[in-house]
């Protein structure tokens, strides 16, 4: 029987990359919850380019938003109201506001409802910050994936450079530390490691080693 797998962890820990790779190896469906919140953030930038919006504005936009996940040639695509935003949601501008957007209760409640429906039939790996504690509390396997702030910043730096973005590494470390703090201290579904979650620190692991560790835990 295929299991329901919940992977939580802080920003830049490699959750999406590793969850996606493990899902492909196991024949599971990968659900990127972070991309769903990024989609709301992207929509806010389209509606309010200057960034001057209230929490109520975000909630209103999220209420009327249609977010869909699909797979093309083994790659996950995400669309907002029919527009493919798979690359657009990964920009520094979206990253800068996504924690704020994700902290809003009405936004989280809508996304959680969607995520639970997606996982209802099992055979899924879902990653985020509150998957084991809030979204899938009855998941068969719960993993808390992390790495040092320095390593997470270095990974994100290389990723953004490859995409053509000019990023300051020191500033990136500061932003990740600030996001850790915001995610852990928010009132609505904060980032936590539930007691039954297995800690997997990938600071000194390469992708293949980390992927193998996740697959072993699932199997």
Characterize the biggest β-sheet.
5 strands, parallel
Per the principal axes of the C-alpha atoms, what is the gross shape? globular
The whole-angstrom Rg is: 16 Å
Order of helices and strands: EHEHHEEEHHEHEHHEH
Task: Please state how the strands of the largest beta sheet are arranged side by side.
Answer: 2-6-1-7-8
User: Which band does the percent of strand residues land in?
Assistant: 15-25%
**What percentage of residues falls in helices of 4 or more residues?**
40-55%
Q: Stretches where pLDDT falls below 50 for ≥5 residues? A: none
Multimer state? single chain
Structural class: alpha/beta
Topology, number of strands: 8
Task: Give average pLDDT, whole number.
Answer: 91
Q: Whole-Å distance between the termini?
A: 11 Å
Give me the number of helical elements. Answer: 9
Describe the protein.
With 219 residues, the chain is an alpha/beta fold. Helices cover 50% and strands 17% of the residues. Helix 2 crosses helix 4 and helix 3 runs parallel beside helix 5. The longest helix is centred in the last third of the chain and has 17 residues. The model has no long low-confidence stretch (mean pLDDT 91).
Secondary structure: elements and pairs:
Blueprint (H helix, E strand, L loop, with lengths): L3 E5 L6 H12 L2 E4 H15 L7 H9 L3 E6 L2 E6 L2 E2 L7 H11 L2 H14 L5 E5 L2 H5 L5 E6 L2 H14 L6 H17 L12 E4 L5 H12 L1
Parallel strand pairs: 1-6, 1-7, 2-6, 7-8
Antiparallel strand pairs: 3-4, 4-5
Helix pairs in contact: 1-9, 2-3, 2-4, 2-5, 3-5, 7-8
